[in-house]
Amino acid sequence: MIIAGFGFREEATVASLMDAYIRLGGDADAIAVLDDKAGALCFKQLAGKLGLPVHVVSLEDMQAVETATQSEKVQEKRGTGSVAEACALAAAGASGRLMAKRHISEDRMATCALARNDG
Fold it and tell me: Which residue, among 75, 89, 82, has the nearest Cα to 110 in the 3D structure?
């Protein structure tokens, strides 16, 4: 199973999220997001467009995952190096592995990363 994890700013649109997703190839079996962003209109619109299962990741689960990208700014705000990578990995579970580091949307409002769980 391939999971696309998302991180995004409050100002992000569904186009922002879709752009970041497409930059990674747009091929996932599920999408993942941090629990405090699951209700955001842009994410709900994305989930509706893609028609994929949604994994909601808790802050604690996200912070327990080691990410390849280490953004100091994100580390300060969220306690992880990359929200997108951490959400994808946390949703993939203990046997998950990062397939693609975070990609940033053209408008720089959203990021997306892919993780795989073969278990």
Answer: 82
Domain ranges for the chain, please list them: 2-116
Please name the residue that has the structure tokens 């997703």. 21
| pLDDT tens readout for residues 8-23 | 999 999 999 999 999 9
Is residue 17 within 8 A of residue 112, CB to CB? The reply is yes
Percent of the residues in the chain that have a pLDDT greater than 90, as a whole number: 70
Tokens of 44: 């709900």
pTM over 0.85: yes
Q: Are 6 and 17 in contact (CB under 8 A)?
A: yes
Q: Domain 2-116 class?
A: alpha beta
Tell me how far apart the alpha carbons of residues 42 and 81 are, in angstroms, rounded to a whole number.
23
- Retrieve residue 82's tokens: 């990359």
